[in-house]
Amino acid sequence: MTPRPSALVTRRIPASVLATLESRCDVDLHAGRERISREELLRRVRGKQALICLLTDRVDREVLDAGTDLRIVANIAVGYDNLDVAYARSRGIEVTNTPDVLTEATAEFTWGLILAITRRIPEGERLLRAGGWKGWALDFMLGSELQGKQLGIVGLGRIGLAVAVRAPAFRMRVAYTTVDPVPAGCSGPLPVPQMQALSFDELLATSHVVSLHLPLTDRTRHLIDGKALARMKRTAYLVNTSRGPVVDEAALAWALREHLIAGAALDVYEREPGVHPDLLALENVVLAPHLGSATTETRTAMADLAVRNVLAVLDGRPALTPVP
């Protein structure tokens, strides 16, 4: 009898998805709430044919060399900056991610952040809970309306497009800029009437809300630095649901403290789960703990897609969503 393939799963996944994997593979599951340690990852990847990991797991040459039997690394995320894709391919290891299934959830959450920061919702809740609300007043905690303003999308991939599609509901006009070529599957007619292409500098200078939807690459790391923030309108808001290191957090804290921009809303950070301490002290920033895809439906779909990729490759079939 041919031995069953083995798979390492670096974090708990939904029981129904785990059962599907266990029906076909011997599964080594790291069930702790904390992420798997480097030492554990190196030890437990040995002898495995498949690795199902998260964006918090650094899968570099050392890990790939330890996993001498690996045939696939399935990342439960759209981004894959935590993986050494080129080296994996040189070893004949397939690398997959989970695009599409989290697009809508992340776009919805982006709009939640936009509304939260422009209307000062978390700030108001903190004030109320602390007993600081003394009653209604005409000039109390004034925010900013969205209608008639420009939403600037930086990075026109699947999620950026999904955010843009929702803008007309708030009567916002949309501008966009791209740092890298538009990903496959995102080309074709633009979904928002009169959606305007601008240079990066033009978009920063003219947008009321700047929303980031970029992969983390050498070109995008600290794309939003002190100079970029200084180009923005003093009434503008920055929103980041992409990757933390796209924004220089020290520069952002400075810009917020000096009121160079009106506010920011972040779901991702340079050194997760750490947040720059200067940001924690500011009221004009909304901070969320990486919740962009955090719905029951989406997280289940992400894990399911990773497992289906694993089973396809182990069966000798093409991966469903190989990293491009």
Describe this structure as you would to a colleague.
With 324 residues, the chain is α/β, with parallel strands linked by helices. The chain folds into two domains: 6-99 and 296-314, NAD(P)-binding Rossmann-like Domain (Rossmann fold), CATH 3.40.50; 103-287, NAD(P)-binding Rossmann-like Domain (Rossmann fold, 3-Layer(aba) Sandwich). It contains twelve helices and twelve strands. The strands form two sheets. It has a seven-stranded parallel β-sheet with strand order 8-7-6-9-10-11-12, with helices on both faces. Helix 1 runs parallel beside helix 12. The model has no long low-confidence stretch (mean pLDDT 95).
Secondary structure category: alpha/beta
Quickly name the level 1 CATH class of the largest domain.
Answer: Alpha Beta
Q: Averaged pLDDT, please?
A: 95
CATH architecture of the largest domain: 3-Layer(aba) Sandwich
Strand content: 5-15%
Radius of gyration computed on alpha carbons: 21 Å
Number of domains: 2
**How many β-strand runs?**
12
List the helices and strands and how they pair.
Blueprint lengths: L5 E4 L5 H8 L3 E4 L8 H7 L5 E4 L7 H6 L5 E4 L9 H6 L3 E3 L6 H16 L2 H9 L20 E5 L3 H9 L6 E5 L18 E2 L2 H7 L2 E4 L13 H6 L5 E4 L8 H9 L5 E4 L10 H4 L4 E3 L8 H19 L10
Parallel strand pairs: 1-2, 1-3, 3-4, 4-5, 6-7, 6-9, 7-8, 9-10, 10-11, 11-12
Helix pairs in contact: 1-12, 5-7
